[in-house]
Specification:
By secondary structure, the chain is an alpha+beta fold. It has two helices and five strands; from the N terminus they run H-H-E-E-E-E-E. The N and C termini lie far apart (about 50 Å).
Length: about 80
C-alpha cells in the first residue's frame, strides 16, 4: 500500500523531531521549520514513486523530506545559499 499525502506529512513530522535527525541538520532554526504541501513524484512509467515534502522556514523552502510509498524516510536535506563576495 502506498502512503497517502496526510500519512507522508505525519511521517515527515515524526522523523524531523527525532534526535538523530536534529543532530544531522546544520541550520539552528530547523526546529522552527514547518512542512509544506507534499508533491507526489512519479517514475518514468507514471507510477507513484515517493513523496517530496518541502521544509519551510519563514515561508521559504529550506530543505526537504523524501518519503517512500512504504512510509520509510530515505532523505532529509537542507539548502544552502552560496553568496559571492
Amino acid at each position: 500500500m502506498f502512503v497517502n499525502c496526510d500519512q507522508a506529512i505525519d511521517i515527515a513530522k515524526a522523523k524531523i523531531k527525532q534526535a538523530e535527525a536534529q543532530r544531522n541538520l546544520a541550520n539552528a532554526s530547523w526546529s522552527d521549520a514547518s512542512l509544506g504541501q507534499p508533491v507526489l513524484v512519479e517514475d518514468v512509467f507514471k507510477d507513484p514513486s515517493y513523496w517530496i515534502i518541502p521544509l519551510l522556514i519563514q515561508e521559504q523552502v529550506a530543505g526537504f523530506v523524501r518519503v517512500l510509498g512504504t512510509g520509510r524516510v530515505t532523505a532529509i536535506g537542507t539548502f544552502v545559499e552560496i553568496r559571492d563576495s
